[in-house]
Amino acid sequence: MSYPESLHGTSEDLLIGNAKASKGWQITDRKLVLGYGEECFQIAVQQLFSWKAHQYAGITVTQTNTTVELKFWSIRSYCRVLKSHQGSRRAILIYGTLEKHVERGEEAFEITMADNDQVTAHIVAFSKPAKWWAKLANPVVRWVQLRITDKYLEGLKS
């Protein structure tokens, strides 16, 4: 992993509000109501675990066991899946960055179906630039990161 071991699992804590940003780390926290009902939940879960939400955002994904290659334009970044679970009303996918990633950190994707059958997607991440050019162009890289996150959310509805 390309970020401190003491931060492993922090993204799941961020999902439930039990963590705060560590100094120097950028936090992404986005939610979107996807719709209502079991069919909506199942579609969102399928979009998440098949990587179609990532594809919707323009990311090509290749997975080998727990290692995931994310390709955006000609930039390749690598992650490790840390958690992948689907229950009857909650699904979660978490991955952390490996050394060949543009950023350092973790990203968590959660899909929940509330008691009123409302289906919500929640994405949180903590990150900081890893590559020199990402540090130099951090405002642009951050804008792209937030735009991609919003596209992930939209892709969960497709």
From TrEMBL:
UniProt cross-references to InterPro entries, sorted A to Z: DUF1990, UCP010260
Coiled coil, from the record: none
Domain of life (superkingdom): Bacteria
Boundaries of every DUF1990 domain copy: 21-154
Full protein name: DUF1990 domain-containing protein
Lineage: Bacteria, Bacillati, Actinomycetota, Actinomycetes, Mycobacteriales
